[in-house]
Amino acid sequence: MNLDFKQASEGKELLPTSVWESIVNLNATQEIQVAEINPDFADGESLNREYGVPFEQEANCLVLEGKRGDEKKYAALLIPYGKKANTNATVKRPLDVAKVGFAPLDFILEQTGMEFGAITPIGLPETWSILIDQQILEQDSIIVGGGLVQSKLLVPTKLLTQLPNVQVIEGLAKD
Prior knowledge:
The chain is of the alpha+beta class. The protein has helices at residues 17-25, 44-51, 89-95, 105-112, 157-160; strands spanning 6-7, 33-36, 59-68, 71-80, 84-85, 99-102, 129-133, 141-145, 151-156, 166-169, 173-174. It has a single domain (6-174), classed as YbaK protein, CATH 3.90.960.10. The protein is globular.
C-alpha cells in the first residue's frame, strides 16, 4: 500500500474538528492513523489503482434518515466497499422507523463538519446510530474517509465498536 499513514496526533490538520475530538475521546490518537491523499483518487476504484489499497480493506460510510410520523432519526451505515446497503427491514428495525432514505447532503455536512465524499463514522453527532456490517469486523483494520476529501483514516476495527450508538448487523450489506 502506497499511503503514508501517521498517527492521528501527528496529522491533526488533515481532520475536521469533530473527527479529531472523537479520536481523542476514544483515547485513540496513537491507534487511528491518517494519510493525506489526492482528492481526485478518493473513491474506491481510484484509491485501489492509485494507492494500492486492497478493496477488502475499504469501507463506505452512508448516512440515512429514518422517519416514523414526524420523528426523524439518523444513522451512518458502514459497509464494505463494492457492496450495497440493505436498507429495508435490516435498517428500519434497529432504528424503529417506518421509512428510510438517504439523508439530505446539506444537513449531513452541516451537522458533521465533514466534506462530501469523506464522511466517516468517527465524529458523527452522538444522537445518530452507527450500523456496522458484520463483514467489516472480519478485517483487522479498515480504510475509510477522514472527514475531509484529502484524507483517509486507517482504523483498527476493534475501535469501531467503541463508538457511540453502535450496532453490528449481519446482512447490512448485500452484493
